[in-house]
């Protein structure tokens, strides 16, 4: 298996290379590339690898710019610190989406999936291939949430939700009218079912709808305070590691 790594942090890239070499199947890391432009150049002059391990935030751009520039059909395992792009990732050639720090067990499971798919695609008919591809399709975004309060069950349309937040290990949704209701979803799970164009996870506690943001204020160096409607019980900030993707999302 010939593997290409797209990663702009050298320490993480070497860590990934070491994990790949631990895998029982023979693997060769062809190159470690830190930017979209370097990846375009490399792919333009070399035979395609069998698999790409791909970070999302590279030196010069989001890695999705690579797919916009060339017809890339190589299977991809995303390795990233951001959970906001999971839906977008599975619209391309992704077979798995791993969150940093990457552990060997998680990467090994993703490589197992790659080998399973490879065996099927090399020996099955076109109809079987189509069936396998259908299994990899992105599921639709969730358009309503069920809420249980005592004996009462409510169905809340996603379009009526201003934001989600975590409090004392419980997740709550807040509607546009200010209703505060508990749900059986973690924020990590919400990242898999919410439309990333409409919702963004600004920190460890809040997942916010675009329309709920009235303004963003510079609070201190590298920090934004959000003005939300309806008003939350506490001040809400965009965490430093999410500041750049948040600004990109806000301007879409």
Automatic annotation (TrEMBL):
PROSITE patterns: HTH_LYTTR, RESPONSE_REGULATORY
Ranges of residues in domain HTH LytTR-type: 145-214
Response regulatory domain residues: 2-115
Molecular-function GO term, any one: DNA binding
Pfam family, one: LytTR
4-aspartylphosphate sites (modified residues): 55
InterPro entries xrefs: CheY-like_superfamily, LytR-like, LytTR_DNA-bd_dom, Sig_transdc_resp-reg_receiver
Keyword Phosphoprotein: yes
Gene3D superfamilies: 3.40.50.2300, LytTr DNA-binding domain (2.40.50.1020)
Keywords: DNA-binding, Phosphoprotein
Presence of keyword DNA-binding: yes
Top-level taxon of the source organism: Bacteria
PANTHER family in the record: STAGE 0 SPORULATION PROTEIN A HOMOLOG, TRANSCRIPTIONAL REGULATOR-RELATED
Entry protein name: LytTR family DNA-binding domain-containing protein
Native species: Dawidia cretensis
């Amino acid at each position: 298996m010939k593997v290409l790594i797209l990663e702009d942090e050298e320490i993480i890239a070497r860590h990934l290379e070491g994990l790949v070499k631990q895998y029982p199947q023979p693997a060769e890391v062809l190159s470690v590339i830190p930017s979209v432009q370097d990846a375009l150049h490399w792919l333009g002059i070399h035979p395609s690898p069998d698999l790409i391990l791909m970070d999302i935030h590279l030196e010069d751009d989001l890695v999705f710019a690579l797919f916009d520039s060339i017809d890339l059909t190589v299977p991809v395992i995303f390795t990233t610190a951001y959970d906001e792009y999971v839906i977008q990732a599975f619209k391309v050639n992704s077979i798995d989406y791993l969150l940093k720090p990457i552990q060997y067990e998680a990467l090994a499971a993703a490589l197992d999936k790659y080998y399973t798919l490879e065996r099927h695609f090399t020996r099955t008919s076109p109809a079987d291939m189509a069936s396998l591809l259908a299994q990899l399709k992105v599921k639709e975004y969730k358009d309503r949430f069920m809420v249980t309060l005592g004996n009462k069950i409510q169905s809340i349309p996603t379009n009526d939700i201003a934001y989600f937040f975590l409090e004392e290990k419980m997740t709550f949704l807040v509607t546009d009218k200010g209703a505060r209701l508990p749900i059986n979803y973690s924020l990590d799970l919400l990242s898999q079912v919410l439309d990333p164009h409409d919702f963004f996870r600004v920190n460890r506690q809040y997942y916010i709808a675009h329309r709920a943001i009235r303004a963003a204020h510079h609070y201190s160096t590298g920090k934004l305070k959000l003005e939300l409607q309806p008003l939350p019980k506490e001040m809400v900030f965009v965490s430093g590691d999410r500041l750049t993707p948040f600004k990109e999302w806000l301007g879409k």
